[in-house]
User: Fold this.
Amino acid sequence: MTRHDLNGRPIIIGGGIAGLMTALRLAPEPVVLITKAPLGGEASSILAQGGIAASLGSDDSADLHLADTLAAGDGLCDEALARRVVEAAPQAIEHLGRLGAAFDRARDGALLLGLEAAHSRRRIVHAGGDATGRELVRALAAAVRKTASIAVFEGAEVRHLFVEDGEIAGVLAVGNREAIQLSTNRVVLATGGIGGLFDHTTNPLGSFGQGLALAARAGAELADLEFIQFHPTALDGPLRPMPLVSEAVRGEGALLIDERGRRFLADTPGGELAPRDVVARGVWRQLRAGHRVFLDARQCLGPRFAERFPAISLLCREAGIDPAIQPIPLRPAAHYHMGGVAVDTEGCSSVRGLWACGEVARTGLHGANRLASNSLLEAVVSAAWVAISVAAASPGAHRALKPAIVPPRPDASRIRSIASRALGIERDGETLREAASRLAPIATGHDAGSDPALVALMMTIAALRREESRGSHLRTDFPLRNAQSQSLRLTLDEMLEASANLSNTISDGVALPGRRA
Assistant:
């Protein structure tokens, strides 16, 4: 194992939009960017078909964008933080354009604005029709390549954070050939989400919450882990990750139907453009009842489908479906995690020297249910704030890192069936308790399943603790919303205590440990 002292140079873990933007915002300060895949390769950001929400229309405003965000968040958004994000959105779009992102525009050069679920105005900025994430990653990766101050460490996975006296001291990363210890007191997690814990997901299978495991084992607080957004319209087929059929297709008028052609959301307020949790539950209940579900774009788009949504059209055709003349088979899939590392307005975690940005962070923007296309916005906007905070933190004195055993390469395959059953669209206490009992011995072990099991166990404990139904979290045994409920923060020690005492805690009717924010 080799060791390097970075003299306090920041390390950014993750090569998606959040990590790339943070590195660029820190320039010209020297930084190290560590990414598992080649730069611009595998990341959830690349798969993002939806765009970036920004109040740019003449009939729109930051106040309206904020109202829609708060409504979707179902009472758990941080309103001050959410306002700060939506007000920064127009400038974020301009900055991305200066970095080379090619957004879709009308003939007069004006940005084309799309409509997505739970938005009261057309405010979604797209690139390449349905390839926004791919275009942003392309532009940002190219900018990173041109920035001399950013050293990119590709094909490496961070498996451990060193902590000394309550402060980050470095990372242990494993590349293609060897393990490396990098000494620094400034680390930014930008590792993405948790969809890889589920059988049906739109995320890369490697996105199982590694950043959450790293943060938890370092002693950081995590928050709102129970809130998982299931995208209602993933292309039903064998591919993993499952191809996403963007919400923007429904924004153009596509309808959800069953195998008989019945529009089963016709009586639902908002219909196909109701909040994602509502639509996902509607689709799920049809499937559970033995029906099939399809998205029908034949009337609203027909032969224009391929022009408007070229990437989706290609994915459908590869699956043997022509969306211009055939309905698209669908099912819900784990898509986005509203919870994450608890951070303040500058992205600082509860551990000194550890920041989080993007999906791995819980900023308070999304609350219990993310508003469509606010995720890329959050990553871009938060990266600037994180960079300012990281730059202001003084490089610490060199710390000699202690020898460490290299953890095995994580593998979530043993965990997916457990998480999928317990943490799906509808949950209940009995299934959650059973999942916790199965996950605990794996999470406390030292094999390839330990980190994925740890993340799933923390999410399970959080779901047990939230004895209500709110946003994306539906408990069939607690179907009502608790007006007094707040965000729940949890540390690894508290989670392990709750897990160890779970049977006694539940039988005695005592609340599981965890602090409400």
User: Anything to note?
Assistant: The domain at 407-516 is CATH 1.20.58.100 (Methane Monooxygenase Hydroxylase; Chain G, domain 1). The chain has 15 helices and 21 strands. The first strand starts at residue 2 and ends at 5. The chain has three domains: 2-192+338-392, 234-332, 407-516.
